[in-house]
Amino acid sequence: MSLRLHIPAILLLTVLSFQCRSADCSSLDFSCSPIAALTFAAPWMAVATGTDCTGWYSVDRRSWQAFTFPGCTSGTISSVAYGAGVFVAVGSTDGTTCGIWRGTGMFAPQFQLQSCGPTSVRMSAVAFGSGPLGSEFVAAGVPTGANFNAVSSTDGITWTDALIAEGGAGGAVVSVVYVDSAQVFVESSGVPQNTRRRSIGGGTTWTDGDNMGVTNPKLATGPLVSSARRVLGFGNSPSVVQYSDDAFVTGSTNYSPNIFGTGTPVANDMAYGEGKRFVFVRDSCGATVSTSDSGADNSGSYTMTACTSSNLKAVAYVEPYFVAGADDGYFYYSTSGLPAEWIRSTGSTAATVQRIAGRPGF
């Protein structure tokens, strides 16, 4: 009797497992397997932020759903990060006023507008870090007077002061990343062209780092090199990629040969896939990749074959996929990141993608 009751369940599992081994459908892909949804608490999810109060999310990488950030009337949602089971997005509700949103949904992000704590001005970057000192989000934005506004939170709800006290003559903080090997946050700004470091729970204590010497330097984390997380910096001029293996405590080094080859393209964003490669996205459907995860090789600059958008603006690695977003609200994904191996996703809203973050899962 007991055996007969279990046979249908075994057959069902076998059929579902077989079906999910079809092309472009992993056996652990939530979108094609109901069993995966029941077995794993949180499915794979990517979230993108954009202009005009727009956000997008996907749980299968192939289709994206657009939504409007609550409480936003005319602002840009500049950045997003994932950590401790939640997404945090930052930007502005109306173009100038601070906006911070927290999303906790399992199958949709379900963002809610939060208080910005001690600041009221536009935020431009956010990162999550976790280590022996705890876990924390750090968001930073435009300057007030001589200081860049920044706030931190352990839960994405309550935000406290993390002011960056160095002359912010203009613009905004361009990037904030967390360097796990050094257990510090690193931020970069265009004016001055500098980096600064702060520990988890460090309040307003930021330490000056290397001046990168490039316009609007963007930061991204790369591979572990001798147990140290490599941090990459790239900017608009000169169009070179620099790196630091000590979180910019000492000077940065230019990659040689230049990852971009002999051309001088402007990269809009960069992602590193552990054990795979670096991927830079550019205007005119440009994609620059390294042929290994070292980044020291020269791959030159290519056009993403599947791209039908004008300009690629953002890219992230949400294991096991690279995901890129464009200025027309369309998205592309690839397991390898190679220019000819991207697939165009369906569904879009006419807004420009700013940043992408994700929750690894199934």
Give a verbal description of the structure.
There is one protein chain. With 362 residues, the chain is mainly beta. Among the domains are: 40 residues, no CATH class; 149 residues, YVTN repeat-like/Quinoprotein amine dehydrogenase (Methylamine Dehydrogenase, Chain H, 7 Propeller). The chain contains two helices and 28 strands. The protein has a four-stranded antiparallel sheet, with no helix packed on it. A four-stranded antiparallel sheet has the order 4-5-6-7, with no helix packed on it. A four-stranded antiparallel sheet has the order 8-9-10-11, with no helix packed on it. A hairpin with a 3-residue loop joins β21 and β22. The two termini are 34 Å apart. 49% of the residues are buried. The N terminus is likely disordered.
Tags for this model:
single chain; 362 residues; mainly beta; Methylamine Dehydrogenase, Chain H; four-stranded antiparallel sheet; 2 helices; 28 strands; globular; disordered N terminus
